[in-house]
């Protein structure tokens, strides 16, 4: 493993690995739930060590992993397929278009990557209980990985989380506490719980290894494109940690001299959950009031990683945009029928954003190598698309009936 330290993304102070656990002790001191996190920590690897040891033909990603392999839980995550989407790409004027199908993870979403690394850290630290707040996917991911490692997962979710996600976490054996209210309410309660009762808190961006875990999706893109970064990555944004994680992947590769340019990151939010989008546009942060979108995984009033997400967009020369629920559900169907990738509404939001971008003045050039992140499996929430599909009626089992 490569030696690393933590760096505060706000004040640049650095800390030894075991001197801190969550936020920068200085910048995080004024943090309270209900505002975006301050003092989020970043893992900084010794880039010289990575540069010297990295083998582009068979990359060993443990060189960029913040927990030793001996502590990794037994449930493999990641290595999800990168699906070429030629037909959709032709429609959009982007012949080099791929879909990264994160539904292929064990619990069906990209969140497995973050949970994997935080559970590894819990095993290293000898913590037996891991606590999280979640809109649903982080919780089912934590429940799955904790089950594989024999640890206890304690989960606070909004009671409105899609049924399939709730079933997953219960069957994986987690202690599930549905909370009356929103994801932001569940987040606040989970923070109070770990402060008062202990356990390792896996809340997104609050635990720095959630960003490191999500980063692995970006590292894989480099390998799957034959040792090249894409030009553009399009991703849906809730708390802004997947976005931050993808950015970190490319920053790590750049620091080690493996890539030259950072891909442009395009962050897509739901129109009614748009705090990060407005923050990028105006430079002034304010909560999304009453977030309300069918894309439950990106429904958040106060995104934890708002500051980091904005930095990732600016540093990568990217942009953000918003899409409506109708555009999301339309894109979900289009993506499924046009590429074979069925992703939940939050995943489809990214594709909806790309469709919108290509229809406007800022369209990407045909030469761009573009990856759309399909962040979670479509079967996680069938209620949302059911409002728009009609399932054909049953016929008698005869050819006569078929012909009618
Ligand atoms: C969590 C999640 C997102 C958004 O990720 P953030 O890190 O919260 O921005 C998008 N899609 C799916 C399916 C998710 O589970
Ligand atoms: Zn700081």
What ligands can be seen in this structure?
A: pyridoxal-5'-phosphate, zinc ion
Terminal Cα separation, in Å?
Answer: 66 Å
The SSE string, one letter per element, is EEEHEHEHEHEHEHEHEHEHHEHHEHH
- Category by helix and strand content: alpha/beta
Biggest sheet strand line-up: 4-5-13-10-11-12
Fraction of residues in H or I helices:
25-40%
Give the strand content. 15-25%
Largest sheet, in brief, is: 6 strands, mixed
Radius of gyration: 21 Å
Uncertain parts:
none
CATH C-level label of the domain at 82-108 and 213-386: Alpha Beta
Which short descriptors sum up this protein?
38% helix, 4-stranded parallel β-sheet, 6-stranded mixed β-sheet, binds pyridoxal-5'-phosphate, 404 residues, globular, binds zinc ion, Rossmann fold, 14 helices, alpha/beta
What does this structure look like?
- The chain has a domain of 201 residues: Rossmann fold, CATH 3.40.50.
- Helix content is 38%, strand content 15%.
- α8 crosses α10.
- It has 404 residues and is of the alpha/beta class.
- Bound molecules: pyridoxal-5'-phosphate (PLP) and zinc ion.
- The site of zinc ion has 8 residues, from loops.
Mind sketching the topology for me?
Layout: E1 4-8, E2 14-15, E3 41-45, H1 47-53, E4 82-84, H2 86-92, E5 97-101, H3 111-125, E6 129-133, H4 137-149, E7 152-158, H5 163-171, E8 175-179, H6 183-197, E9 200-201, H7 208-224, E10 232-236, H8 241-255, E11 264-270, H9 275-282, H10 306-315, E12 319-323, H11 325-339, H12 345-358, E13 370-374, H13 383-386, H14 399-403
Parallel strand pairs: 5-13, 6-7, 6-9, 7-8, 10-11, 10-13, 11-12
Antiparallel strand pairs: 1-2, 1-3, 4-5
Bound molecules: pyridoxal-5'-phosphate (PLP) and zinc ion.
